[in-house]
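Reopening this ticket.

The earlier resolution said the output was attached, but the attachment link was broken on my side. Pasting everything inline this time so it's all in one place.
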Amino acid sequence: MGKITTVVFDLDGTLLNSLEDLADSTNYALRQFGYPERTLEEVRRFVGNGVGKLIERAVPDGTDNSRFEEVLGCFKRHYVGHCMVKTAPYLGIMPLLETLKREGYKTAIVSNKLQGGVDELYQHYFADTVQVAVGERPGVRRKPAPDMVELALDALGTKKEEAVYVGDSDVDVATAAAAGLPCISVLWGFRDRAFLEAHGATCFVENPSDILKRLKDL
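Inline output:
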């Protein structure tokens, strides 16, 4: 192990392919109010800034829509009960996490997903390999603010100089910068390389196994 002792992961699009469940819950909520459904690719573009922004982007007229809060509430209720229907870790993620644990790295998850959803997914998939999971909660600013990352590092007892951030989106690039961490951008998630480069990403991996190699170079 080099100077990096801790890896902070984004969740959706990085560890988990959750897009279809997010899209299904979005469209369920839209249907209840008679609004047009959204395609998978539209939802792919909408995610990354929390469920409030997801629904704001999905609902006609966004937050100006008088029923926005009702749609958001409907989404939240449906998603909590349906967040693991089609969601699963990307190929190679579980072996990566097991290797990181075996080699002594500390790991954390930080997500703009509601804390309840994060907790459920964490317990189902990652409780044996990841030490900390931070989601959206009162009093903590969502990414790209550094608050969630700082909470995770404090819980792990890690200085930021010893940590790296791994994510799949422009929000993750900005989060890493705000927290003062180097960023590894994954190419199997919700954004492509050209988009990420346009938003400042400089370090990329195409497979989960490549992350370990990157850590040793930092």
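Reporter confirms the inline version is readable. The beta strands are 6-9, 16-17, 88-89, 106-114, 132-136, 163-167, 183-186, 204-205. The longest helix spans residues 19-32.
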